[in-house]
């Protein structure tokens, strides 16, 4: 699947049925998400960062090889193919992007909306590494589907995911792009701070769409809401992409 302007860029996208996505999101509010196999690992202290949490201009340059892993926002739930924030950012920056969005998943949540298992972020990072991908930049978007996960479990899995990326591609920069949703999205922010704290400790750059003030709020959500008070329409995805690019450029060393 390619966005309109990506041209020669390589874009791999994993798509789950939309009806299944809605069902999963509705049940997430009443029952805890199913932990992936990596969740059972005993928490360990994050590995000391290999480098300061800033981004290298060379790894953001046109032609950079970029891996983007995320949830339904990255998949582009409910919108035309190639119009999600990840495709828009890759197009804008001229990146050769591998885009792996799976609805229902997260750092801990490995159960996809279509019933597939083992798709938590750390496992997917390892699979891309085993497939021989070589990346300058790894972006890990999400966490909303981990809403009911204990903070300690989430911290362990965020740390494991960042470490998996660093092990696979030691010279790559890593960005963790936190969760958000229109109208608050029922826990759209990293309320416990587990994702932000662990990403920072692990040496990743954390892009926070909830601070210093939420990117999506009561004022702009009506314009950006897909209609389910959780996902973004085309305008919302374009807005998210623009804000993300601004935040990334502000983190360049």
UniProtKB/TrEMBL annotation:
Keywords: Hydrolase, Signal. It comes from the Bacteria. InterPro entries: GDSL_Rv0518-like (IPR053140), SGNH_hydro (IPR013830), SGNH_hydro_sf (IPR036514). The keyword Signal applies. Residues 69-238 form the SGNH hydrolase-type esterase domain. Residues 1-36 form the signal peptide. Residues 35-56 are annotated as: Disordered. PROSITE patterns: PROKAR_LIPOPROTEIN. This is SGNH/GDSL hydrolase family protein.
């Amino acid at each position: 699947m390619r966005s309109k302007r990506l041209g020669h860029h390589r874009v791999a996208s994993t798509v789950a049925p939309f009806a299944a996505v809605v069902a999963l999101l509705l049940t997430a509010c009443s029952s805890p998400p199913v932990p992936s196999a990596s969740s059972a690992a005993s928490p360990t202290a994050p590995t000391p960062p290999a480098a300061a949490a800033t981004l290298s201009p060379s790894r953001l340059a046109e032609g950079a090889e970029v891996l983007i892993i995320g949830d339904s926002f990255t998949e582009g739930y409910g919108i035309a193919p190639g119009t999600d924030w990840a495709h828009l950012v890759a197009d804008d920056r001229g990146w050769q992007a591998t885009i792996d969005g799976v609805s229902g998943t997260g750092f801990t949540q490995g159960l996809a909306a279509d019933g597939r298992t083992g798709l938590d972020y750390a496992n997917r990072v390892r699979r891309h590494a085993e497939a021989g991908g070589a990346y300058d930049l790894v972006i890990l978007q999400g966490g909303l589907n981990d809403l009911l996960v204990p903070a300690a479990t989430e911290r362990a899995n965020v740390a494991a995911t960042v470490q998996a990326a660093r092990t696979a591609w030691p010279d790559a920069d890593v960005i963790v792009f936190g969760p958000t949703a229109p109208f608050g999205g029922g826990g759209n922010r990293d309320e416990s701070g587990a994702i932000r704290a662990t990403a920072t400790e692990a040496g990743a750059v954390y892009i926070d769409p909830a601070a210093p003030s939420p990117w999506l709020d009561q004022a702009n959500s009506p314009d950006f809401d897909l209609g389910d008070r959780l996902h973004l329409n085309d305008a919302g995805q374009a807005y998210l992409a623009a804000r993300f690019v601004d935040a990334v450029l502000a983190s360049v060393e």
